[in-house]
Amino acid sequence: MKTKRANGNGSVFQRKGDGLWVAAVVDPLTGKQERRYAKTKNAADAKLREMSNRVASGVITVDKSRTLSAYVEVWLAHRAESRRRSSTVREYERCLRTYVLSALGSKRLTTITTPMVEDVLDTMAAKGLSRSTVNQGKKALAAALSDAVRDRLLGVNVASAARLPEILSAPKPVQIPEPSEVQALMDKSQGTELGRLLILITYTGVRIGEALGAKWADFELDAGSWTIERTTTVDRKGRIVLGTRTKTGATRTVPLTAHVVESLREQRRQVTAARLRAFAWADLDLVFPSSTGTVMEPTNMRRQLKIHTKELGYPGAFHTLRHYTASVGLATATPAQVSRLLGHANTRTTLDVYGHVLHSVAVEITDAVADSLSQERLVQGWYRSS
Fold first, then answer.
1. Residues 289 and 230 in one domain
2. 6 pLDDT band (50/70/90 cuts)?
3. Are 140 and 96 in contact (CB under 8 A)?
4. Average pLDDT over residues 58-67
5. Pick from 322, 339, 358: which residue ends a domain?
6. CA 291: distance to chain centroid?
């Protein structure tokens, strides 16, 4: 006996042999038929209604008895990229396959506990992995399980509740170059496309991906401003593509000095000339395009930069210039103002990364206070002695 439902809402039928009733529905996310079993037709009808409701609400119908590996495969294929950048999902997939699934993949989704997750994080730390890598492993699993909670497959996200191992060392302070080192790098690359890219990054504190993702339409050169709306990113196949948002998702506007505007005008002349020379050109309106107008591979620019940094003994790469801008900013402005310029998600990020810089500034302030009081003591002593 078989009872069909209209409009693809599944069916209920009695299986030959053992007489069990089967509720079957096709999961539109996976294209696979999902089945539930019951001893009576009424129970099977109830299971079908539950499954159909989940399908109608766009929820994965995966059986709660599935393993973590089975769930993650469905999640990566159909849900992971719905509200996340491709580059983020690519990194999550790497962490899950490399560190998490080897330990927890065979466990049923509903049996995984917070202590189990912490055991995985402890194992990662014991292998000497960095704090950021261990934290990324936690974030990857938490991202997958957050959708499992939303899909009502789990009651709580056990990964989010997990604590990082205490044995992890604190992140090393960022390396900040001296003004003379930055100027030497500018002088070395003067008049080249690399030099113009370095000017833009240093004077605005932007990320390399934001600079390479910039379009001429984003600039108001006469007004001296740049609205940063996107960055380059890496898709699931490892290709560099133009993103649709910044790293934090927020748009910000940064001011441009006359020196930066002059450099950009020269860059526009060079891009126009390159477009006329090119046999084929992808008209993406990019400020720093490849030789065919497409998105520039950051590795190409890093390779050019490395030649100069090696010759000069410069400590770092593109991101070091961002650190330099931040350090100068913190010496002259508030953390909140620097945070807005850099495009950090919040001021806490700025404080976490550049706390040691703020300490240096605090030392200068306390020294200045001591100097002023020393001068005051000299004055008071002069009055008393006269």
1. yes
2. very low
3. yes
4. 64
5. 322
6. 28
1 with 14: CB under 8 angstroms?
yes
Same-domain check for residues 96 and 218 = no
For residues 120 and 216, membership in a common domain is answered with: no
Q: Answer for the pair 324, 314: CB distance below 8 angstroms, yes or no.
A: no
| Rounded CA separation 335/215 (Å) | 28
pLDDT at 25: 86
Residue 119, token pair as written in the block: 């055991």
Tokens of 200: 């833009």
CATH number of the domain enclosing 112: 1.10.150
- Interatomic CA distance for residues 24 and 14, integer angstroms: 11
Same domain as 209, residue 248: yes
For 217, other C-beta atoms within 10 Å of its C-beta total: 10
* Contact between 366 and 375 (Cβ < 8 Å): no
Final residue of a domain: which of 104, 128, 150? 150
Per-residue pLDDT tens for 104-157? 999 998 899 999 999 999 999 988 888 889 999 999 999 999 988 887 778 889
**Residue labelled with tokens 């959708």:** 147
Q: Are residues 32 and 52 in the same domain?
A: yes
CB 177 within 8 A of CB 315: yes
In-domain check, residue 259: yes
Asked if 199 and 318 sit in the same domain, the reply is: yes
**Contact at 8 Å (CB) between 243 and 213?**
yes
What is the spatial distance between Cα 190 and Cα 198, in angstroms, rounded to a whole number? Answer: 9
Q: In what order do the strands lie in the sheet with 33-38?
A: 2-4, 11-14, 21-26, 33-38
Residue 36 CA to residue 324 CA, distance in Å, equals: 60
351 found inside a domain: no
d(CA 324, CA 355): 14
Write out the residue range of the structural domain in which residue 304 sits.
182-322
* 126 and 51 inside one domain: no
CATH for 279? 1.10.443.10
Count of the separate structural domains present in the chain: 3
Q: Whole-number mean pLDDT of the chain? A: 84
Are 188 and 119 within one domain? no
pLDDT-derived band at 343, boundaries 50, 70, 90: confident
- Rounded distance between C-alpha atoms, residue 72 and residue 104, angstroms: 11
User: Per-residue confidence at 381, pLDDT binned at 50, 70, 90?
Assistant: low
CA 310, 131, 70, 144 torsion-angle sign = negative
Extract the tokens encoding 134: 């261990």
